[in-house]
Structure formats: structure tokens, C-alpha cells
């Protein structure tokens, strides 16, 4: 109630027209009609301050709502075809790829279409998921956590995967062997700390995590925490040539080109 | 001397505010003269309301629908939910009165930031589950257009509670309740414990419960600032001052059984502005007591507890400041990244702090050992004698720790049953409480704020039923039995 009054000052003071302030200068040069228009726009914005603000708040909320929509579970498919098909459908829908046990990788084509043949594989578990770059978030993990036999999970460059998500991975502890978090902008050392639940992990990629404050130290601590796991990682290793090449291979797409 | 020094300010306020502001012993006959002078000056000065000489922006408004005493995390959360649940937008005017904008003694910023669901009372578990959801989506709840997103630095490392043989059965039944409420907690045997955390000495441990999700610690300052930023954008007014007095009226009534009761209603809150003798009366409809450790005093100001003992009138708000120490130490061989928030059967707790093998922890003293809450000095012998021995016994690596720093803060300690007090007072009908959380107030703040706002706006609890936490339990003697108080 108090603060938003400020913009009114942009419009009101009449003495401002005479003084050559920043705004005064531009105004002095503008022809009369233009000046009026400019003023009335400001006047309009000032009058509509709350409306504009409410609109922007609404847009912000809408953005969040869209994310929720994208990540809601496919309850119907789960009931009809089981958790594996539902999980696979969810990932494919977001543009990722899945691999059923003993089958080829399935991914959607350039236009986002994919064949629904996998729905027939009801009892075949999903063993690998590549959700690189997908908009999976905390809520969307529900669908992934239902894949009890998941061994490989790639979450490279996922913009919404954060520390909260990592704290949810513990139900996969008995199966998960490989996890890649490379390039996720929201993951920090705080989330990495709860990967110690994943005692069967053999390979972990934590390279290129901008939110980790001490990449080198963090890698050492993660290695200590998961003694049986090969940790690929932190920035300082990038300087080494060998490391870089190896890393590149790891990140490439699951389907050999 | 004092009089001359404060006179210009006094005059200024009178001029700008008319009769609104008064000073301690103001003389009524002067008021007339002063308003005459004021008129004269106004007629000389150009520009009607524009009065740069008499800046009164530091004074609170003369009216506000709701006055919240205390701008800590609880007070701000109440303000947030009041504004969020109000209908239509801008329907109520909310004022937060905080006497210390640096929060130098506020519990919120002196706490260790933990959040857990490992409580024994279902309501406490629900409160903390609600709060964790709030924290997770904090950037949706507290989003402010054009401001950067908040990073509350949540460490999802879980709590590890250890139980001795004696406490094992209780722990098991507590975990059952926690799971029913939806918390992700697992039980561990000493054997499993050793496998998972080899640095723990399991001697004397019969059972452990470990939170897999939704538990850990975060940055309280960030939550506080986020709430502040948001409520400010929602139009809540802030005032830097201290609540010193309530003006209320009483109403004598008789119950059906013929008992006489006196209902009180607060009409005005006196806010004393910092570093000055002047005060401003704020007319209000509802007062919210969220003054943390000092809420007992605020209740007293409103006349709560002034009556014959044993009656509802004579029942005090049993909340008082209790000093608690937090110590930070360094231990190169200490437990690693996986370290949870550990609570020993002895009551000693610790957690990791950052990545550099630093840890922090402490212990609540026994009732007989309670230190004097007059200041916030730290007793280092307490660490030597009470905390360290238990630490070293539980984690042998801590035998060689090096103390780094320490601080002390106040628990808003409820001496009756160490649980929150939420909702209206039965006799002072427009004072609502949100206090007494005794060491778990930070984590419950988002949910408690909502509960109080529901009570104020709708007249009943909606999301979480907090009726066990009403004030009347002190009179009725019904304790909320929470076993996991740290
Ligand atoms: C060492 C320690 C560790 C803790 N650890 C945890 C934890 O791990 N997890 C957890 O959930 N909780 C923890 N707590 C408890 C938690 O900090 C408190 O329960 C919580 O912060 C209470 O918030 P509040 O807003 O009620 O109090 P405060 O933050 O103290 O706010 C009250 C405010 O009221 C103001 N005030 C008082 N009187 C007046 C007046 N007359 N006029 C105007 N303003 C006034 C004060 O200046 C103060 O800023 C801990 C507390 C301590 C001391």
C-alpha cells in the first residue's frame, strides 16, 4: 500500500518540465503532441499500477502451473498398463529416451512423436532412462521412482532437477548403478550429500555443476562417501586432456549415431 | 537535558500528526496552541500536503486492522498468510511492529535451522510437513516480480535420532505415528547404523530412526528475508518500534452457571519509537502476539495472568526466554558429507556445517542448570563439561576436535509443555498467540502462520487442526505430550 505510490512521481511534478533532468531533456525535444502521449502512457501505467502488477504476478504463477502440468503423473496409463509403461510414457512425452530390459532405446522423433508399441511390454522393467535436458521436476520424479529396476539414469542439463530431487532418489538405492547429473544448474553439494543412500552406484557424473561452490573438494568428499563408485567430475579435472575426452564420450547420446 | 533534546522531535510530530502522537506526560492545554501554530505554518508554506520538514514516515499508522507484535519468522509468516488469504485483495491492513531491525537477539537468526518430522505429536508432524512443502516451493509462495529467486540452502541430510534401550519402544511407536502422517522415516538397528555411518560408536544405542526425506537444515536468515520482501510487496506495513502498552476495555458478563467473567478487548497498541520517548497509539481490531521469547511479557502487558491463581484470569502465558548455546568446532577426521543431524540419547545434538569438516551442536541444560537469560554470553565450560564428553563418546573422532566459535540464542520456551501456543486468548478476545515453540518454531513457522491467519479470518482452523495448542490448555492442565523436544 505504501511503496507502490512511488511511480506517481514520474508523472506528477510540473516543475520537472522546466528543469533539464534526464527526463526533462528528452521531453523538451519532443513535439507537444508526442509529449502528451508519453505522459498519458505513464499516467496510464501509474493508474494501472496494481493491474499491471497483478498481471505479471499471474503470468509468473501461470509459468509455475505449466511446469506442474508437464510433470503430472499419467494415472490412467499407470492403472491400465502398469508403472513401467507410465514411466516410459512420461519420459518420452518430455522428449527423453527409455530402454526396456533387453530392448533397444526408444525415443521420440524430431516432432515429439513416438510409437506406443512399448505399452505392450507391461511386465518388462525399464532399465535405463535418458532424461537429458528434460523439464523433469520434483513432482515428475514420482513417475521415475516407480521404475524399481532402474539401473541407469541420465539427468544431464535438466533445468529443474535440484537438491530436493536428489533427496528423493533413495527408493532406487537397490538398483541404480549409474547416475549422471552433469550440467544441472540447480544441483549443489547439499543435494549431492544425500546420494550416499545409493550404495550400489558404480558411476556418478557430477561434472559441470555451476551451483557447487567447491567442485574439487566436493568431488573428493563424494568419493569418500561412495567408496565403490567412480566419480566423474568436477571442473578442475577438465584441465586434464584425457579426462576431457573420456567425459565427452560419456555424455553422448545413448543411441550410437 | 532530556527534555530539551527530545522537544524538537515531539513538536515535529505534533505538527504533522495533529493530536495523534503524545509523549509520556503531555499537557493537553498545549495541544490547542500547537495546532494553531501548525495551521499558521501550513498557510505560509507552499504545497498542501507536501511537508518535507516533518518526516513522520518512521511512525506507524494511526489505524491498522491487525497489529503483529514481533517481526521474526513467526510474525512475518502470520502477516504473509493474512495477506494471502484475505478476500478481496487489500481488504485488511496489517502492521508488523519489530523493535530491532538488525534482529540481533531474535531467535530466528540465532537458531540452527533444522527441520524434521520426527516428533511424537501428530500435529507437530503435520506442521513440519506443511512447512517443508512450503520451503520446497518457496519461490512460488514468496515470488516477487523482478526480484531474484530465493536460495534457502536446504541440506536434505536428514535427522538421525538415537535411542537407548529404555527409549527404544517409545521410538518405535513414535515412528509409527510419523509414518502414518506421511513422513519418510526408517528404523535402524545398531548393526545397520554401523554399516551406514561407520564413524558412530553404537555403544548404548538400541535403536535409531533416520529421516530419509523432508528433513535437514536451511538458512533461517534467507527465509526471514524472503518473507519480509514478499509481505512488503503485498502491502504489509512495517514499523521500527517497541510495543509498550495496550489500551483495552473490559466487559463483565455472567456465564450460564452464574460465574462472572471479564472479557477484555484491546483497542489501542502503543508503539514506542526507537531511541526516543515518543510513542504512537495505533488503533486496531486484532493483536497478534508473535514476540517469541518475549511473548510472555507482551501477554502480561495485555493483563493476561493478572487474577487470582487457579482461575482462567490468573493463568499466565508460560513462555519465557531460555538461553541455549551453540558451539562450532573443527575436526579433520570427523564424519563426512553424509553426516545427518544427529541427536544423541543424552540430548546432545550436532550437524555438519559446510564442507570444511566443521560441525556445530549443543545441548539443552537441565532445569537446575538453566543459565541466567539476562544476556547472550556463552558459557564455554558448558561445552567442556556437558557437550564434549557425550560427543566424543558417540563419535570417537570428536575426541580431538578444536572449538572454533559459539553463540547463544533464546528459546521461546513454554515451561508448561514445550509446545506452541496458537490461537486466541479466551478472555482477551482479540489477542492471538503464535509463540512458545521451544526450539522448533522456525520449522513450523510457515504452517503456524497459516493456522493463525485462518483463525483470524475464518474463525476456525482449516488446514491443520491445532486445537490442542490453544491457550485454554494451561488452565485445564492438558499437556501436549511431545517426546522429541531437543
Ligand atoms: C540455539 C537455538 C537453536 C534453534 N534451533 C532450531 C531448529 O533447529 N529448528 C527450529 O525449527 N527452531 C529452532 N530454534 C527455535 C526457533 O529459532 C524459534 O522457535 C523461532 O525462531 C521463533 O520465532 P519468532 O518469530 O517467534 O521469534 P523471534 O525470531 O525471536 O522474533 C520475535 C521478535 O519479536 C520482537 N519483539 C519482542 N518484543 C517486542 C516488543 N515489545 N515490541 C516489538 N517487537 C518485539 C523481537 O525483537 C524479535 O525480533 C532454535 C532456537 C535457538 C535459540
Describe the structure.
Chain A: This is Distal membrane-arm assembly complex protein 2. Chain A: InterPro entries: LRR_dom_sf. Chain A: Belongs to the ATP synthase subunit s family. Chain A: Required for the assembly of the mitochondrial NADH:ubiquinone oxidoreductase complex (complex I). Involved in the assembly of the distal region of complex I. Chain A: Interacts with incompletely assembled mitochondrial NADH:ubiquinone oxidoreductase complex (complex I). With 257 residues, chain A is α/β, with parallel strands linked by helices. Chain A has a single domain (73-252), classed as Leucine-rich repeat, LRR (right-handed beta-alpha superhelix) (Alpha-Beta Horseshoe). Chain A has 11 helices and 7 strands. In chain A, strands 2-1-3-4-5-6-7 form a 7-stranded mixed sheet, covered by helices on one side. In chain A, strand 5, helix 8 and strand 6 form a beta-alpha-beta unit. The longest helix of chain A has 22 residues, at 49-70. Chain A is flat, with a radius of gyration of 26 Å. Chain B is of the alpha+beta class. Chain B has 3 domains: 60-106 and 224-318 and 417-476, FAD/NAD(P)-binding domain (3-Layer(bba) Sandwich); 159-211, no CATH class; 323-411, D-Amino Acid Oxidase, subunit A, domain 2 (D-Amino Acid Oxidase, Chain A, domain 2, 2-Layer Sandwich), CATH 3.30.9.10. Chain B is 31% helix and 25% strand. Chain B contains 13 helices and 18 strands. Chain B has helices at 2-17, 28-44, 73-85, 107-110, 122-136, 138-141, 168-181, 190-196, 220-233, 295-301, 380-394, 441-458, 472-476; strands at 22-23, 63-69, 94-98, 114-115, 159-163, 185-188, 207-211, 216-217, 237-254, 260-273, 278-289, 319-330, 341-343, 349-352, 358-362, 402-414, 421-424, 431-435. In chain B, strands 6-7-5-13-14-15-12-16 form an 8-stranded mixed sheet, with helices on both faces. Chain B has a 5-stranded mixed β-barrel with strand order 2-3-9-10-11. Chain B starts with a helix and ends in a 10-residue tail after the last helix. The chains are: A alpha/beta (257), B alpha+beta (486). Chain A binds chain B through residues 1-3, 53-54, 56-57, 60-61, 64, 138, 163-164, 166-168, 170, 188-194, 196-197, 213-214, 217-218, 221-222, 224-225, and chain B through 89-90, 93, 136, 140, 143, 145, 153-158, 212-214, 216, 232-233, 235, 237, 336-338, 355-356. Residues 69-75, 97-100, 103, 106-108, 110-114, 242-243, 290-294, 298, 324, 326, 409-412, 435, 437, 439-443 of chain B line the site of flavin-adenine dinucleotide.
